[in-house]
């Protein structure tokens, strides 16, 4: 009867005969839930640390990829620059060849003119010598 009176007042005795406000079953379920929550929180913490490590690894990999991308872009630009330089150099050399060909033709014409003049002067000298 005393147990019923105490139970009506909302108080209960546990297995150690301590007075509790909750029923022993509810207290047991609450303790189990508390333990499960602690395990869940521990698992979540483990998951967060794994995800954090994964994020760091992906960030590191992204930085490396970005660096390699920049190197590739730099190499491509250098290659284009070298190609343009070669084209410009080739055009300069072709212009120099054209200039030298023009100069050669001028020298040929000048040489032909000088040979003609030399022949005329030799003929004049021979005629002058023959007249004397």
From TrEMBL:
GO (cellular component) term, any one: non-motile cilium
Species this chain originates from: Patiria miniata (Bat star)
PANTHER family: INTRAFLAGELLAR TRANSPORT PROTEIN 20 HOMOLOG
GO biological process, one term: cilium assembly
Coiled coil regions in record: 79-117
Location within or outside the cell: Cell projection, Cilium
Primary residence: other
Alphabetical list of Pfam families matching this protein: IFT20
UniProtKB keywords: Cell projection, Coiled coil
Name of the protein this chain belongs to: Intraflagellar transport 20
